[in-house]
Amino acid sequence: MTHHEPSRDPSGFRWLPALTIIVLSWLALFPVTSVDAYYHLATGRRILEERSIPTRGVGSATLGQAPWHDQEWGFQVIAAFLGGPERDGDGVWVQAPAGTVRLILMRALCLGLTLALLSAMMALAGVDALSRALGLILAAFLTFGNLFWAIRPQIFSYLFLAILVYLVEWDRRGARWAGAATLAVIAIWANIHGMFVVGIALLASEATGEWIDGIRSGHGPVPTGRTRRMAILTLLAPAAACLNPHGYHQLIHPFLYVARPEIYRGNLEWTRPDYLHLPLLVLTAAILVVALANRPRIPATHVVRCALFGALAASAIRHLPMAALVWVPVAGASLTEAAHRGGWRRNLLPTGPAWGRPAARLVAGAILAATFVILSGAKFVGIRPRFEERPVLPMPETAVRLIASHGGEGTVFNSYRFGGFLMFRLYPREVAFMDGRNDLYGAFRHEVYNPILATRPGWRSLWARAVEEHDVRWVLVDEKDPLVAALAGDAAWLMAADGAPAVLDGEPGRDGVVLMPRDDPGSRQWLLPALRAAERGHGAEEDRSP
Q1: Sequence-ordered list of residues with C-beta below 8 angstroms from that of 258, at least 6 positions apart, any chain
Q2: Is 361 exposed, middle or buried (0-12, 13-18, 19+ CB in 10 A)?
Q3: Distance from C-alpha of 438 to C-alpha of 419, rounded to nearest angstrom
Q4: Which residues contact 164 (CB under 8 A, 6 or more apart)?
Q5: Dihedral, CA atoms, 358, 363, 368, 374, nearest 10 degrees?
Q6: d(CA 98, CA 86)
Q7: What is the pLDDT of residue 499?
């Protein structure tokens, strides 16, 4: 991250960064937990089968004919190809065990490559091996603790961001090929995930920082050679992003989230971070500030870059991992330069004289690493790899099979987290009332879906209209949802078991799922026997299903 040439590492722990990357990648071998993975897999399967990117809201029973911009099609194809779903004996789509293993290995590989690039960036800046290993642990657990390393397109965005920052650092060192390579990265990234616009912003921040550094160096407002080069790359990057099947629409689409806040309003990922519950983020910011403040000369490029990604992280918690990927290598490089100034600053790194002999330094490093892990609050990592599909909250496996056994006719009014699950399990039927694609549903979620589910004032008229317009024949929601109690006394709806809510999955009163089919002629004759048969086989089914 500076103009120093990499030198021989004096710490005696040259093997440590590689071992850290291996261990952290191993910890990423945890189950498929994100419910969003389901609709990505369903859409990817559709693309592979139809050999075209959908332009309407496929999989949705309510907005299936509405225009839809699938900006994540590249990830969906990769995930569906690796996942290899298959139909089980009940006629529903499930992940083949080998496919689940491949998806989890894909995540671990993305994490490993991302961390390897962070380590390489810090090595370029002369950061010692022990400090690099600690930086990698810090970066990983800043994101582990917030479940961002899930089977979602973001994992590729983190990798592409790390590649881009790495190339920018090589360009700083005079490697002209690196600048041209940034355009290729943007072009590929634009086919995977809409976060590529952040990569363009990174190039712009680099050009801005170079211009500021030029003024500080006495060149005045006249741009230097690298300033012009970075400015040209910034201007060319949007054109590179248009090299995809959507053309310029792919470039415009991410900005809809700024123009249409109803897309992300109420979504946890888009909320501002609660710093009281993110102590590791606060600690990282403090380390960064101390590191920059004690650097002999602070490059404006690093200040602008850190400020940009700090502002992104402050705007929404989903941007926190990007800040971690940018802040950690800058902090490592800055601490290393500060230590070169001598005096007390030598002890800013764990290789300073105050840290003692190599063995003592390693122990101190282990204590710091443990502190990072504890402060992260990470709960979804473990020593024993688990190659399985196990969402954080229970999924209605029995209920979906009951719907499938009845032919899946009509729309299922479902809990939000069940939408992608229904899309995947009952593919290619379009039965989900609502799923996780906020850019498709927009205001519909807040104006129609949420008032019904929460039984807010006026919900009955919305419900009656939804039933008629969308042929709602099933209600598959969490037992705790207010709609359950509201429909319990409605003669038009039949409870799943003798007039009382039946918990098909999960424990009674806790994340339970209530299934209520529409009370049409003959429903009582087929429903209760089928339900009891499903419940008798559910114990064995749970042994087979994650």
Answers
A1: none
A2: buried
A3: 12
A4: 182, 185, 186, 199, 202, 203
A5: 160
A6: 11
A7: 37
Non-local (6+) Cβ contacts of 338 within 8 A are 291, 294, 295, 296, 345, 348
- Which helix (H) or strand (E) segment is 291 a member of? helix 279-293
pLDDT band at 536 (very low <50, low <70, confident <90, very high): very low
- Mean of pLDDT over the chain: 84
How confident is the model over 498-516, as a mean pLDDT? Answer: 40
Beta bridge partners of 349: none
> Which of these, 196, 224, 189, 204, lies nearest to 307 by C-alpha position?
204
User: Is the predicted pLDDT of residue 508 greater than 60, yes or no?
Assistant: no
| Out of 13-17, 380-384, 483-487, 527-531, least confident range | 527-531
Q: Calculate the alpha carbon distances from 481 to 154, 339, 447, 475, 506 in Å.
A: 30, 57, 17, 11, 15
For the chain, the residue count is: 546
What pLDDT was estimated at residue 494? 55
Burial class of residue 384 (count of CB atoms within 10 Å of its CB; 0-12, 13-18, 19+): exposed
Q: Which of 532, 519, 527 is nearest to 487 (CA)?
A: 519
Alpha carbon 497 to its chain's center:
38
Confidence of residue 381 (pLDDT cuts 50, 70, 90): low
Q: Report which of 529, 441, 431 is spatially closest to residue 475, judged by C-alpha positions.
A: 431
Which among 30, 67, 76, 124 has a CA at the least distance from the CA of 441?
67
Pairing of the two strands 93-94 and 86-87: antiparallel
237: buried, middle or exposed (CB in 10 Å: 19+, 13-18, 0-12)?
buried
Strands, E, within 232-356: which ranges? none
Rounded to two decimals, the pTM is: 0.88
Rounded Cα gap, residues 305 and 318, in angstroms? 18
How far is the first Cα of the chain from the last one, in angstroms, to the nearest whole number?
Answer: 44
Give the model's pLDDT for residue 380. 63
Taking the C-alpha atoms of residue 142 and residue 247, their distance in angstroms, rounded to an integer, is: 35
Does the pLDDT at position 362 exceed 80?
Answer: yes
Q: Which two tokens stand for residue 410?
A: 């009509």
DSSP state of 432: B
Region of 49 on the Ramachandran plot (φ > 0 left; ψ -120 to 50 alpha; else beta): alpha
CB 108 within 8 A of CB 225: no
Q: Any residues with CB less than 8 A from the CB of 440 and at least 6 apart, and which?
A: 57, 60, 63, 66, 68
Q: Work out whether the CA dihedral 436, 440, 442, 445 comes out positive or negative.
A: negative
Give the number of other Cβ atoms within 10 Å of residue 264's Cβ.
18
With a pLDDT cut of 70, the percent of the chain lying above it is 85
If phi over 0 gives left and psi between -120 and 50 gives alpha, with beta otherwise, what is residue 31? beta
Locate the DSSP E strands across 50-164. 86-87, 93-94
CA atoms within 13 A on the CB side of 414: 26
